[in-house]
Specification:
The protein is α+β, with helices and mostly antiparallel strands. The chain contains 5 helices and 18 strands. The chain folds into 2 domains: 89 residues, no CATH class; 149 residues, Galactose-binding domain-like (Jelly Rolls, Sandwich). 18% of the residues lie in helices and 36% in strands. A hairpin with a 2-residue loop joins strand 5 and strand 6. Bound molecules: calcium ion. The site of calcium ion (CA) has 7 residues, from strand 11. Keywords: Signal.
Amino acid sequence: MEQPLSPSLLSVYFTAALIYIMTDNVDAVDMMGKFPFIGASQTVFFSKVFVNPSNIEHFSQVGNSTNLSELNCAIRCYHDPTATLFCEKDNDCLLYAAVVSPGYTKDIGDGIECYTLRPLDMALNKPVYAPAGAKVLAIRPKENLVNGICTQLEEDGKDCAAVRTAKNAPKHPWFLVDLQSAIMVKTVVVRTQNFGGPAYIDNLNNAEATLIISTGLEYNDDEDFNSFNYIGEPFADFDMDQEIVFTSHTPTLARYIWMQLSEGKYNFLSMCNLEVY
Ligand SMILES: [Ca+2]
């Protein structure tokens, strides 16, 4: 028969747990990388990512403090509703409004240590497809749609993805992301780019233009998306550098995410990033 724990034994367990927590708290880096950070109303995770300083220059900076510990920098980041990333550089705590997905690995080696508040992105580095015969711009490869970063670099849009359908084809350019296995999808987040001038925004804001995100379980390379279902409502009111969140009422089992711009002014679609939660 199981005996209840004696008060003295409970005290030993409690002390051990306290020491364990305090020990981990000594190293704020490990704590933020591995453990939940308890906020006022929710539990959030900071995930360690490495970001190249040249990319960081193109994030929107929303805060800057000197000589803050990592833990205090994290707290400041958490409490700033515009901040989603913090980096430490020369003893500065730098806060950014930036898309960097947990697990982003491209800048490991030449990046500085940062922490992102973005949730785990199930689309990160997954295969991306475009319509047969479509042109995918070399400077904005389709893989950039899910490369886990949106630097909004104006010069060449190097972290955005662009596809242009054939001249005489319907103006319905699309991307298909293969999550490689069926998962429960609740939310898809799309980020528009913040450059491209009138053509880009005119294209999206054509009177009939809508962006749809659909999910499906099966796809046979035949460009038939009839079995796919909308996640959230089609979106029509576009702006530059805009985060568009498509959320389904209940999580949907899906392997594929299909993003299509319907009836744009032109036959191209360019987006900075897509995340799946
Ligand atoms: Ca991107």
